Amino acid sequence: MVYSYSQLVLEHFREPRNVGEMKDANAKATAGSMACGDMMTFYLKIENGIVTNATFESYGCAANIATGSMVTELIKGKPLEEVKNLTWQEVVKSLGGLPKVKHHCSNLAIDTLMKAISEYEKTGLTEVETSDGKAAGREKTSQVIEG
Ligand code: FES
User: Fold this and answer.
1) If residue 78 lies in a helix (H) or strand (E), which one and from where to where?
2) Other C-beta atoms within 10 Å of 137: how many?
3) Of 72, 101, 132, 145, which is the most exposed, with the fewest CB atoms less than 10 Å away?
4) DSSP symbols for 117-143
5) Cβ–ligand 1 contact at 33 (below 6 Å)
6) Cβ contact 132:60 at 8 Å
């Protein structure tokens, strides 16, 4: 089947940004799409409440690769609380649109991202204290999450 993709979708598909495993990620999740059976993984590095790095691996279609790429671009350097509000519609809009039949591919990207954040938060955050005893920010204490 042939789909009509925006120029930006094609750019992110052909040259995806931030692809691959992140060795020092402190949040990770893999999720699959019920609609098509494809899967993807997000890796996040979260420091002091900021998503300082984000990468992904996609085992999905062109639309999923493009949305994964765009998601990493949209969230890098952003506060975690802001990232938690990102929607698939915003990602699709940032890509100049997607065919309706491909919306589930962007849902997979957002669902995987939110799963990684949820796992990160479930395992507990602690306040990092500076030498003067004041909280410097939130830091995760556990290792990379599988699943
Ligand atoms: S068709 Fe499966 S992620 Fe796009």
Assistant:
1) strand 78-79
2) 13
3) 132
4) HHHHHHT-EEEEE-TTS-EEEEEE-S-
5) yes
6) no
Q: Is the CB of 40 under 6 A from ligand 1?
A: no
Q: What values do phi and psi take at 33, rounded to 5? A: -95, 130
CB of residue 73 inside a 6 A radius of ligand 1 = no
How far is it, in rounded angstroms, from Cα 66 to Cα 68?
A: 5
CA–CA dist 93, 43 (Å, integer): 23
Instruction: Find the 132 Cα to ligand 1 centroid distance in Å.
Output: 50
- Other CB atoms within 10 Å distance of the CB of residue 47: 15
Q: What is the pLDDT of residues 27-70, one digit of tens each?
A: 999 999 999 999 999 999 999 999 999 999 999 999 999 999 99
Q: Which two tokens stand for residue 87?
A: 């929607």
Q: What pTM did the predictor assign?
A: 0.84
Answer for the pair 48, 129: CB distance below 8 angstroms, yes or no: no
The answer to whether the CB of 38 is under 6 A from ligand 1 is yes
